[in-house]
Design brief:
alpha+beta, Growth Hormone, Chain: A, 6-stranded antiparallel beta barrel, two-stranded antiparallel ribbon, 8% strand, globular, MFS_dom
Amino acid sequence: MSGAVLVAVAAAVGNLLQGWDNATIAGAVLYIKKEFNLESNPSMEGLIVAMSLIGATLITTWSGGVADLLGRRPMLILSSILYFVGSLVMLWSPNVYVLLLGRLLDGFGVGLVVTLVPIYISETAPPEIRGLLNTLPQFTGSGGMFLSYCMVFGMSLVPSPSWRLMLGVLLVPSLVFFFLTVFFLPESPRWLVSKGQMLEAKRVLQRLRGREDVSGEMALLVEGLGIGGETTIEEYIIGPADDVADDLDLAVDKDQIKLYGAEEGLSWVARPVKGGSTVSIMSRHGSTLSKRQGSLIDPLVTLFGSVHEKMPDTGSMRSALFPHFGSMFSVGGNQPRNEEWDEENLVGDGEGYPSDHGEEDSDDDGDNDLHSPLISRQTTSMEKGMHTGHGPLSTFRHGSQVQGAHGEGTGSSMGIGGGWQVAWKWTEREDESGEKEGGFKRIYLHQEGFPGSRRGSIVSLPGGGDGAGESDFVQAAALVSQPALYSKDLLREHTIGPAMVHPSEAAKSSIWHDLHDPGVKSALFVGVGLQILQQFSGINGVLYYTPQILEQAGVGVLLSNLGISSSSASFLISALTTFVMLPAIAVAMRLMDLSGRRTLLLTTIPILIASLIVLVVSNIVHMNSIVHAVISTISVVLYFCFFVMGFGPTPNILCSEIFPTRVRGICIAICALTFWICDIIVTYSLPVLLKSIGLAGVFGMYAIVCCISWVFVYLKVPETKGMPLEVITEFFSVGARQAEAAKTD
């Protein structure tokens, strides 16, 4: 996974520039107002600082939609250019108006980075370490602030500090970011799939995952193009087709279901479990409980929780669904592989995938069918005679255990991360006229608990080894829905091959229609709510108060005794404050994928509440100045550390995970716009609040907001750790429909 890690680190350099800029302007403004005589014009001074916020807010209004249209990488390149040009303008700045222009351009770069870096990292990272990698922007942002404060402190010690040089130094890291975005960062594979560029998407995935076989994840990316399909939660007993027929005599069982993998030669048989899956049962129980409690706890929270309670403790990148079926999910040795979606060497056979060659090629002859991950050119007796309206259905050949050569730690062709697998089934039924009709169903599979542990089932898995001579079966929860390329709404136009449509066609739809999907609306409620509560939780107020607290603790006196001026001392104090955050963020990076996003929020927000309450009491109760300084300092340090562990990075991480591919850019732009608007409100309301209700009143208000935040997280925010993005959005869709059904009932 080193490829995904390096790409995430390179993308997070953009946030280092954001932190660098925030800290630099805080120091440079002291010298700017002296040169331009702004002491008597505080509004202009405030505008210089706020212009970056204004620029970020303006560009956020359209950045998400453009990123969905043009791609994530071009927008990151544009942000690096804006950083570079903005720093050049600020370095020149003959007057205050040119300086404002430079700050505006710089703000444009900040806005693009804040919106797009979380999207980019989420779309390229494996589910198992997505939380860790998406915490990198928080770490690099704080690291950039620390480095910048150190630079400003050093420059403030010279007789005539140059604010132009302070701001212009941004040229150097912006050039580094530019070269990284142009020459190192690939385009997001999910965006490439949404535009039908399958070959390029496959190459990028192979680079990011460090392996050749990415057919399962490629199939997942295509399935992620759908929005709002009807999804059911089922449970299956799954095993090799031969074993099921021999041991359980299910060959004539009407409940028998044949499942097909994303790679040629992968097929097996499943039998539905009566009574539904554990996930389904717990979900329905949560929905019923929500109705009894007045719909306080969102069924979505219960639904996600049921999955994490049942996750087996197996390797991260190894398939968790079939721990003894390594051969069923990986192909090696002499077995032919069919992981190519659009191999150039198939064009000669009339089976080329037209995604990278233009759609006009798809109409040249009738055999130019979609070479999708779920179908191949081999037909068995089970599928013979089945037809669709656009040609014969060709499915994977029957194959039991295909011997594999992948070792431990290697992702299987079916694995899509977090112990989830992707498969498809063919359903055949009779319509009202008695004619047979059928269709594909896409299935996300996840192992239920531990093998052979439920209902005293005859199904069991061997405790270890190869299990030779024993029947290998597992029980798995299944999210069953319509495949993205098999949408009935799209079958009437631009179909390619056996009742399939081109991925770029599947991604076309009305944005407003997608935004009104219940799952998307539910995700927007969670994302926007977290952004609002984060900004009003008190971080700006505590940052504002920190220099005063450290001054009371005697830090200022100590530094003045060392011959350091008051302005230089404030820069050093700010550097120390940001330095304290770095170890806490490092801890959060480790815990984000172990404890989870929801757990981190629920455990860190109470510490924020306690710290704010202590600050309120310390400002109300009269006490010794030294005692007051010590208590306040401890409270502020605890607040900073636990904020950057939970409420700091988590809202952006969750927002980058919970939206479907087709509208991820515009939805995150909505959340980012909310962030910037609330940031402006909090920043400019703080002085007014300090005058009206005092410092104790401000901290008390922030403590109340943190209490509301904890309740909101407990009732509405699900746990998304370790789950593929497409599965997360599927669960949001299911949970939203359950909530609507609960309200109707």
